[in-house]
Request: fold
Amino acid sequence: MKNHFLPAIIFLLFCNHAFAQNQLIKQWDYRFGGSSEDHVTISKQTADGGYILGGYSDSPSDGDKTQDAWNNLEDYWIVKIDLAGNKQWDRRFGGTSLERLYALEQTSDGGYILGGFSRSEMSGDKSQNTWGGIGDGDYWIVKTDSLGNKLWDRDYGGAEDDYLTALVPTNDGGYILGGWSRSGIGGDKSEDLWGVPIDNDYWIVKIDSVGSKQWDKDFGGTNVDYLAALQQTSDGGYIFGGYSGSGISGNKTTPNQGLFDYWIVKTDSSGNIQWDMDYGGFNSDDLFSMQQTKDGGYILGGTSESDVGGDKTQANWGGSQDYWIVKIDSFGAKEWDKDFGSYNYDYDLRSVSATTDGGYLIQGSSQGTSGGDKSENNLGPSQSWILKIDSTGIKQWDKTLLTDGFDLYGFAMQTSDGCYLFANSSNGGLAGEKSQTSRGFYDYWIVKFCDTTFMGQSPLAMLSSSDTAFCEKQCINFFDVSTNNPTSWQWFFPGSDSLTSTLQNPTNICYNSYGSYDVTLITCNAFGCDTLLLTNYISCYQNPVDSIYQSNDTLFSLPGYSYQWYEVTNGIIAGATNQFFIPQQAGSYYCVVSDSIGCAGSSSTIIITATTQISNFNFPISIVPNPFNDNITITFQNQNIHKASFTIKNVLGQNVFSKIYPPSGVRGSYAASSLEIDLSFLPKGIYFLDLMMDDTGCVRKIVKD
Reply:
């Protein structure tokens, strides 16, 4: 029996597609965007089993986007979704110029670290100016909490353009940042370029947990060097990768073999070079992705225009560009390389990642029809193209993500449940595998598939429910959505009135006390069992406790809620939605209050009898002016009053003024007399004048303008 910890999942769509040696089943797909351009550049699975998507957007607050772009220019935009693809929240970060997000990681505190480049001065969400002039960008880092609220941001740069492309959290709680720079010494940059200012070098910045710079390093030759990927290695050092047009020069010790080559730099924990290696053919080879492997080596991925020659052992398939994968050992020695392509243009390979079987998942873009390594025709002009290879680079299957649009980039990962998640930027409509039309020109698009070769194995326990957050004394239903055909089920519902169940889909599981509760599902078949524990999956909120009281002819409820008054015999009282209520007939009255999350509680009942508790609404008094500014005048018409008392209450039922007539020690009657009361000290608002005249009382509403 194995254990895994995942939130609930709901399978939304099922459609079958056969590819090469396997069959993938689409679980769901979603697009996220506004009415302009939204480009996804990275996707990651989060600790709660969901996903975080990042990129840049110039859309206003419409569609799936809840915040306007600053100055209608591109900003960082992140979208958090749950395991079933449902959006949980989104956040925009930017200044009044241009920002593009290229790196995103979840941090140990459950929050997120975001990195890219910014051309904005201090404005919007940006708290520091750039180091360069107008049009020059800097590295820009944003740290958020688990809900995407900004905690801090930092700008790092020199006098020219500095462009962040990668970052990762480090073992000491800080972060390593990487990209390319055209800056010389100045600002945050402590080392000069190796080439001329129009060239680029790799630029590495190490920061601590709150963004303070610890050190920086420049790596490059005398030509152009672009960093695209980095990672902290198992020995505590770092590895940096990209592509270089430099020969032996600067701190590059290996010659170029073509126009551009893959260039890898391995350093210790302080950024001191341990070795560097160049890999390429005789044309242009551009590295975009890199990951350390379980054997201590590295898998490198990018695109190649080279045929056989240099380090490249396989010819290009005939298009101008193919995917090129290189496996190296822990010291940089090449172990093998593989070329994958169609007879057309295969480009923008952005992700190579390890899978649990020791193989690798690759995703980029292709304009190709079926042929070469590609088994499917495109539906649109450019589609994401994914390959699965084994540990030695042998292709196992490939998948073209079909839309009728032009799709850019592509990021693939194996998810914690053994399935696959693919993301890209798409302008496709409702066609192919895309079940939602685009909101703007480009949107984020994310698709989840599962591999049917898992069938015939032990189950993978998964569940959903009719609700996860509700008020106490409510009942919900649970649904088994496990894979691999379980034949038995054991549920545990601590805190409910049904502690266990062996049904596949238990119903009417009731939670009568507020709190947070776990749910456990164990599914079994002939091949084994699987346990799913969802910690604090149920959030049951307390219903408010209400009480009402009577002051003369007015009933008052507790402050701070939404209100609805009822009469036991006649039911709901239309329009009686204030904290107070003045009955106009005998009856039994109660109030139901609701809090901000919708939980409701009912008060006890107060019985009102006509003879002793109903106001004499025809009692002849007048109050003028009403509304008033400073003073009111109360006139008793043709009444022989011996004593009168006045109490003024605010809408919370609190006394704000009281007076008795006649004053103590004075005797007499107030027949047909008028009394003026100075209320200039009261703030503007609604009040209630509670008037007792001898043994009869009434309440009148007064308003101060």
Summary: The two ends are 71 Å apart (CA to CA). Confidence is low (pLDDT under 50) at residues 1-21, 611-617, 664-672.
